[in-house]
Amino acid sequence: MNKNGTAFSPGYFRFSRFAISAEPNHLGSMMCQISRVLLLGYLVFWHISATSIFGQDSSNVDESGFRSIFDGKTLDGWRSVPKKNQTDWSIREGKIIGKGSQNKLVYLVWKEEVADFELKMQYRLITKGNSGVEIRSQIDRSGKRPFVGYHADFGHIGIGDNVLGAWDFHFVKRKEYLCKRGTNLVIDAMGKESRTRIDDSLTINDIHSRNWNRLHIIADGNRCWFSINGKAASEFTDQTSERLKKGWIGLQIHDAGMIVEFKDIRLKKRD
Question: Where are the domains of the chain?
Answer without folding.
Answer: 10-54, 58-269
